[in-house]
């Protein structure tokens, strides 16, 4: 690494996907930083699978990780929609449609392999410090001080909380903000972190009869199965609606016994024509019950503190967009820092400039994340037949809209992906849909794919927004109830 700019130093809390991506982006921009990870090894984290969309893959390619990640994945082939009895009602080639539109595949692999690839490909691994749980964040007159549980102190210009949905940095940010401006972070904003669904996640070895590279969604009233097959791995998810919505600061935590009890209830239910869920659970290599929180917070920064990744935006996992979004948020924030440090290499960055860069990051990312949250929200409820309206839309409307137009709807989201603007993306594969940030708007010409009628997209959008409005009204009503208590 060449001389770092300006003495500017970033303290990153958390060494998950967001924290490791931050280290890549900062190293590529030649910005001094340290990543403080609570656990002893960033690569050994438990977890299930992760799906990567072309927007996330572009950033991973810029970070030099895509080749290694791709080597772990078999192409995705068929996507089946199934009734509760396991019978397929439709089959689509969604992965092919995604590739046709963007040039890159949609891939699924163990989350751990993505984390390992991010770590393995870091030019300077000494930036990542393990067994460093952040315990305290203090703003000083011209910087930040971060104390870790082992008694060490780190100083820098800014701190970025990549410490997940239960972020400690966010707690400090809220406290600092409300001390400086009473009421700045409202009770409503804090409790907007809500859990409506839990998910039984895990993976088993490959199961005869379930294919390789296939995706099976089994709809049931109030819950759904999702099973994705890859070589030697059958990833499973059961999305289960909780009896009531749980709001922050209550954090739903489930024990191994809770997971066993839920799995036992579902044991004899089919996940395909030939396989029952109990078979997957019995053969599982890993399995646990987790909460699926949902939120896009209003405030992503205050003073010298910013939050990024799941600490700022947390989605249900049906859309497979949380990790991809963390990569985009990383690119958005470091693009801003790099631009400023390049323009003024010898000037100490003032609080005003930091606030402006943080605000630009939030303004760029928050509207997109609200859109992503809404789509993930809809997908979870559609797949789990959450009420008659969702069941009607999933059974009658989506088949009428058709696979190509559903793929267009996703493409409309993917093409707005944000990548690092200071790192080249050599020879990206072309698809039929141009990226919003590609000034040449280069695509594969003369194809009807990705150019379906706006009317269909409009109709699909309308249906989903109607339901989103219903959701918004319910949330507002619950907030009104809170206020009137
Ligand atoms: C089962 C499952 C499946 C998923 N599937 C997909 C998918 O298919 N596609 C997709 O894009 N996304 C998926 N996601 C979401 C994705 O995994 C997350 O959005 C992503 O991992 C968020 O990364 P993060 O770094 O922000 O947070 P995390 O991954 O939660 O990382 C936070 C890190 O901070 C550390 N930490 C916490 N507190 C402290 C502290 N006080 N001090 C220091 N370090 C701390 C933690 O140990 C951890 O390493 C899935 C999530 C789950 C749970």
Automatic annotation (TrEMBL):
What SUPFAM superfamilies has UniProt attached to this entry? FAD/NAD(P)-binding domain
A matching Pfam family: FAD_binding_3
Q: Gene3D superfamilies under this entry?
A: FAD/NAD(P)-binding domain
Q: Does the keyword Transport apply?
A: no
Q: Keyword set for this entry?
A: FAD, Flavoprotein, Membrane, Oxidoreductase, Transmembrane, Transmembrane helix
Chain ranges of the FAD-binding domain: 9-171
**GO molecular function annotations of the record:** FAD binding; monooxygenase activity
Q: What are the transmembrane regions?
A: 455-473
Indicate the segments annotated as coiled coil, or none if absent.
Answer: none
InterPro entries assigned to the protein according to its UniProt record, in alphabetical order: FAD-bd (IPR002938), FAD/NAD-bd_sf (IPR036188), FAD_mOase_fung (IPR050562)
Entry's family note: Belongs to the paxM FAD-dependent monooxygenase family.
Q: What is this protein called?
A: FAD-binding domain-containing protein
